[in-house]
Design goal:
- The complex is a heterodimer.
- By secondary structure, chain A is mostly beta strands.
- Helix content of chain A is 11%, strand content 41%.
- Chain A is globular.
- Chain B is of the alpha/beta class.
- Chain B has a domain of 151 residues: Rossmann fold (3-Layer(aba) Sandwich).
- In chain B, 35% of the residues lie in helices and 13% in strands.
- Chain B is built from ten helices and nine strands.
- Chain B has a five-stranded parallel sheet with strand order 7-6-5-8-9, with helices on one face. In chain B, strands 2-1-3-4 form a four-stranded parallel sheet, with helices on both faces.
- In chain B, helix 3 packs across helix 10.
- The longest helix of chain B is centred in the last third of the chain and has 19 residues.
- The termini of chain B are close together.
- The relative contact order of chain B is 0.15.
- The chains are: A mainly beta, B alpha/beta.
């Protein structure tokens, strides 16, 4: 019996799968979806064999930028990004944190120069699980709960 | 000069935003200790071998005056925050080596008052000078200055973060007064929470198998992140609030001021000011060869009566700043290799 899709397929674009249900809307938040005229489907609390519940986001006509993939890796470290061409999965990427994260994180230290002057932020990933990063500028360490995205 | 030091082939973790520094750090390991055009931003950027090399050059500077070594070179001292020792010792070091000094110690007479960014200030100053020393209240400012400048930048204190040349002169003093850096029992007392000198010294001494005694009230204890790093490196440490419980074990006692300017809440400061006051009664409870250090300025944490004892080395420590800063200026300007 053919399995019924909860969310309709897209012709060209990106499917972000294996998002923890609790993080699905956060992932929508960090994506730049303004100006997209194709279909955007967001589904959450879907059943998953491996995760229990999960979320999926399908965006027609969009390729993710590196910054967007890095942000997803921070929020949903086990997510997969599928690049769809003509209804086929052309590439499947498991998101992964790079060793340095540029631009996307705000330093939690109010006295850091990056919060007081226009500077592109840069963090070194010291540990991926549990997440621990260090600001290149003020050298303050941050953990997952301290992280806010720019 | 170290040539092909294969014992040091394991690369250090170099937390720096500058590709040029990273390449140079690698270069040091494979070829020699070439410090030319490097920046001195954080003690975390330096390996044990590099620190020992800087101490070696500092000793050379102490023993030989070199009055013309930096002739025609200009040092810019940009002090956005007050300083006595650091600014004056950099100026004196530069002039003793035949160089010239320009700069400011009061931002009210500069364009910073008009809202000029740090980045723009550095871009201007690098055109006027050969090397820049900066002290700034914001953490990370020195790293940003180094990114803006093609000339070497030395961090003379960025907020509560780093003051690497203080750490280097502390190491130089310890090596001089104890004859070694390895296996010492080091007590750090006072404001361990906000004190950048104790943070950096803890990191630097960690290369030398110390045992640390962090002596402070709970609210001003060494931040957990430093304690976690010590645990990872398997370095022994104890936290304590009562100095007398550990004083007999110490080879070095590093005293710090409770820093009013770092407290977000003045009421908190009032609670802890004057909590430690060392005087001659301490002498009954210490090793004969204990040395007491202090980055200065002191307020009331060390009584003057201790100054004349053989234990007090804090003024010698301040004097050693000249030799270390002379060494750094000469190394970064490529006059010593």
């Amino acid at each position: 019996m053919k399995k019924e899709l909860s969310v309709s397929a897209i012709k060209d674009g990106t499917v972000i799968d294996h998002i923890p249900s609790s993080a699905t809307l956060k992932v929508v938040d960090i994506l730049d979806l303004k100006g997209i005229r194709s279909i955007i489907s967001v589904a959450t609390n879907l059943s998953s064999k491996t995760m229990g519940k999960k979320g999926i986001i399908k965006i027609g006509g969009k390729d993710l930028t590196k910054e967007e993939v890095d942000k997803i890796a921070l929020i949903a470290p086990n997510a997969t990004v599928n690049i769809i061409k003509d209804y086929d999965v052309k590439q499947k990427i498991k998101v992964a944190l790079p060793s340095t994260i540029n631009k996307i994180i705000k330093c939690s230290n109010p006295n850091c120069i990056t919060n007081n002057e226009e500077v592109t932020t840069k963090f070194y990933v010291l540990n991926k699980n549990p997440l621990k990063i260090r600001c290149n500028y003020c050298e303050r360490n941050m953990e997952k709960d301290d992280i806010s995205l720019l | 000069m170290l040539l092909f030091n294969f014992s040091a082939l394991v690369l250090p973790i170099v937390y720096t935003g500058k590709h040029k520094i990273y390449k140079q750090a690698i270069g040091c390991y494979f070829f020699n200790m070439n410090f030319k055009n490097r920046d001195i931003i954080s003690i975390n950027d330096f390996s044990k071998q590099e620190l020992l090399f800087i101490l070696k050059i500092s000793r050379l500077m102490e023993n030989k005056p070199n009055p013309n070594l930096l002739k025609d070179k200009i040092l810019a001292t940009l002090f956005f925050e007050p300083s006595t020792r650091t600014r004056l010792s950099f100026m004196s070091a530069m002039e003793q080596l035949g160089g010239k000094v320009m700069g400011f110690a009061n931002t009210s007479i500069t364009s910073i008052k008009k809202g000029e960014t740090l980045w723009d200030t550095i871009k201007m100053v690098e055109a006027y000078s050969d090397i820049i020393v900066i002290r700034h209240p914001l953490e990370g400012s020195a790293r940003l200055a180094a990114e803006a400048s093609s000339k070497p930048v030395i961090n003379a204190g960025d907020g509560a973060n780093q003051h690497p040349t203080q750490t280097m002169l502390d190491l130089y003093t310890i090596q001089k007064v104890k004859g070694k850096l390895d296996n010492l029992h080091v007590g750090m007392l006072g404001d361990l929470k906000y004190g950048r000198t104790v943070h950096s010294l803890t990191v630097a001494l960690s290369h030398f198998n110390p045992t640390f005694y962090f002596i402070a009230p709970q609210a001003l204890q060494m931040p957990q992140t430093y304690l976690d790093e010590l645990k990872e490196k398997k370095i022994k440490f104890f936290t304590e609030s009562n100095l007398l419980k550990v004083s007999k074990k110490l080879d070095i006692l590093y005293v710090t001021r409770i820093q009013k300017e770092r407290f977000p809440d003045p009421v908190e400061y009032e609670k802890y000011k004057g909590i430690y006051k060392l005087d001659k009664s301490l002498l009954e409870n210490i090793k004969k060869d204990l040395k007491i250090m202090h980055p200065l300025p002191r307020v009331d944490e060390i009584d003057k009566s201790l100054d004349e004892t053989e234990h007090a080395v804090y003024f010698k420590q301040a004097a050693n700043g000249i030799y270390v800063r002379k060494a750094l200026l000469a190394l970064l300007l490529g006059k010593i290799k």
